[in-house]
Amino acid sequence: MSEEKLPTEPETIEELMKKIENLEKEKNEYFESLKRAKSDVLRMQREFEEKFQTMQDLANSELIYHLLSVLDSFDLAFQKNEKIDQGFYLIYSQLKDILEKYGLEEINVENKKFNPNFHEALQAVKCEKENCSGDDEGLIVEVLSKGYLYKGRLLRPARVKIITH
To answer: What is the pTM for the complete model shown?
Structure first.
């Protein structure tokens, strides 16, 4: 049997100190890498928010640009009092056309039964027919305020008056 020579205590301490030094260096590298990654994420988030705001501003500016013709029509209607009805109709149709261009749809309620997904009943009136069969329960009799969809999603329900028994 050969006898292995054990390292002396100073050699062991020196090796452990080198290991500690290497681990400390590795830890610092990881920490710096983490700080860079965090900085990159924050920078990307700021850039995204800035780009989103820019896109939102561009979209709004396009909508506002198209609404300027409505303002012009108001000016024209106020200047020519004799054609005020025609002027207001023109303004209404221009505004409606612009909003439809951007995805607004009017909810059609004509001869429809009440649907809580698209309508809000603000008033209910009793059926005034003689021998009322009740078939017209929930039928919309008057639109108090139009309802709208925006790109197929409910923006505002139609506010209606319905028949009850």
So the answer is: 0.55
